[in-house]
Amino acid sequence: MAAEEEAGADALSVREVQQLVRRKDELEAQIKACYAVLEGQKGVGMNEPLVDAEGYPRADVDVYQVRAARHNIICKQFCPKKSSFTGAELN
């Protein structure tokens, strides 16, 4: 009987699971929006250089916007396990 009570205390409720799924969907939508920003900047992805052959910042892209989008993608894709998708560390 005590083992059943312990298992019940550790189990997630349906409402908690639904909240986690909603948060996961929100994070995925935010990541998709950040990728759209990168595509809007001449198709710059996560690994293309932001400097030209001479080492100067590229004039054809908004370097700040690309760096911010890359940063947000990295943070949201690799959120710490301790957050449990609450997003507390992301805000």
TrEMBL record:
Residues 17-77 form the Nas2 N-terminal domain. Transmembrane segments: none annotated. GO terms for cellular component: cytoplasm; nucleus. GO terms for biological process: proteasome regulatory particle assembly. InterPro entries: Nas2_N, PSMD9. This is Nas2 N-terminal domain-containing protein. It comes from Gopherus agassizii (Agassiz's desert tortoise). The lineage of its organism: Eukaryota, Metazoa, Chordata, Craniata, Vertebrata.
